[in-house]
């Protein structure tokens, strides 16, 4: 038997990729305390906190407009499954937090979708979950965006797209209203 045959089975690790953007990031350097482009292990029973207070928050933002503790992420195992997820909780009494279009007030929490945009103030954070199997810890991988995330990433449109692919706004911009025609007339 060779050594690789006797080795422990390697577990994949759940990784939370977070891409940060703020319009004043070049001048104000509010992300200077974050460790970008290197994965970091977080124990499964730890709560990952984001905010201004570096003595409490694992991820510190250097900005007086950010709450002492802005929000937290908690890793958990979903009931009756082997799947893992994250729960996001707003810990700011003054600033609302939005996850995609869901607004969270103080102490409100929801499950973090596998891909979403978290916003508070002028901050935009793209969160993407890469699934894994490890139970004792997860990893975070922080990135810095050059351009606004809300303009970079297109969230699904809430307006239906007609079968012909022509948007109703096309007709409205030409002063015409859409008319129904039989497909055999085309």
From TrEMBL:
Transmembrane segments: none annotated. It comes from Cettia cetti. Belongs to the TIFA family. GO terms for biological process: innate immune response; positive regulation of canonical NF-kappaB signal transduction. Keywords: Cytoplasm, Immunity, Innate immunity. The gene is Tifa. GO terms for cellular component: cytoplasm. It is found in: Cytoplasm. Residues 49-121 form the FHA domain. This is TRAF-interacting protein with FHA domain-containing protein A.
């Amino acid at each position: 038997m060779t050594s690789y045959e006797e080795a422990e089975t390697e577990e994949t690790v759940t990784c939370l990729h977070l891409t940060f953007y703020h319009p004043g990031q070049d001048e104000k350097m509010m992300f200077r305390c974050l460790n970008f482009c290197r994965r970091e292990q977080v124990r499964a029973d730890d709560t990952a906190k984001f905010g201004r207070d570096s003595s409490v928050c694992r991820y510190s933002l250097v900005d007086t407009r950010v709450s002492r503790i802005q929000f937290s992420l908690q890793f958990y195992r979903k009931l009756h499954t082997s799947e893992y997820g994250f729960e996001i909780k707003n810990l700011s009494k003054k600033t609302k937090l939005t996850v995609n279009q869901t607004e969270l007030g103080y102490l409100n929490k929801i499950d973090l979708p596998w891909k979403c945009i978290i916003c508070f103030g002028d901050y935009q954070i793209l969160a993407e979950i890469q699934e894994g199997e490890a139970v004792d810890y997860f990893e975070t991988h922080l990135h810095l965006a050059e351009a606004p995330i809300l303009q970079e990433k297109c969230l699904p449109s809430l307006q239906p797209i007609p079968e012909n692919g022509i948007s109703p706004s096309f007709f409205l911009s030409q002063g015409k209203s859409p008319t129904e025609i039989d497909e055999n007339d085309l």
